[in-house]
User: Which sequence fits this backbone?
């Protein structure tokens, strides 16, 4: 895909048709692996049109494992268990540091980074069932 220009999401003047894909001035950082991306895709459901940003590494199973640990962190668990989850996340990130790729197009504003869950759903591998 050739990106002709970057759009400012605050101005809301970006393409709005189903399947449209474009780069944005804003940068999104994946909550799971820390990768950066500024690609946005428009998707339409029956009632609404929405913008999706997906982590460029989100199709890997190690990524799903990190997502599952992140999910645990948002639940109520004993502190020792939560700490163990944090350690697992760190270890997985370290183990896959070479696989964590950014997906930046053009020259976005690197001062404008938003951390988000950039996870795809649903998923066909076993991690989607957890
Ligand atoms: Zn990620
Ligand atoms: Zn998986």
Assistant:
């Amino acid at each position: 895909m050739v990106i002709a220009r970057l759009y400012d999401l605050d101005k809301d003047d970006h393409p709005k048709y189903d399947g449209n894909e474009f780069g944005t001035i804003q940068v999104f950082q994946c909550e799971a692996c820390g990768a950066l991306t500024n690609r946005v895709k428009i998707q339409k459901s029956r009632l609404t049109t929405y913008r999706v940003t997906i982590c460029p590494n989100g199709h890997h199973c190690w990524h799903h494992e990190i997502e599952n640990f992140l999910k645990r962190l948002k639940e109520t668990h004993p502190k020792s268990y939560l700490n163990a989850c944090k350690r697992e996340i760190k270890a997985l990130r370290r183990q896959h540091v070479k696989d964590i790729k950014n997906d930046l197009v053009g020259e976005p504003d690197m001062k404008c980074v938003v951390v988000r869950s950039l996870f795809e759903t649903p998923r066909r591998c076993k991690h989607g069932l957890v």
About this structure: The first strand starts at residue 6 and ends at 7. The chain has a mean pLDDT of 91.
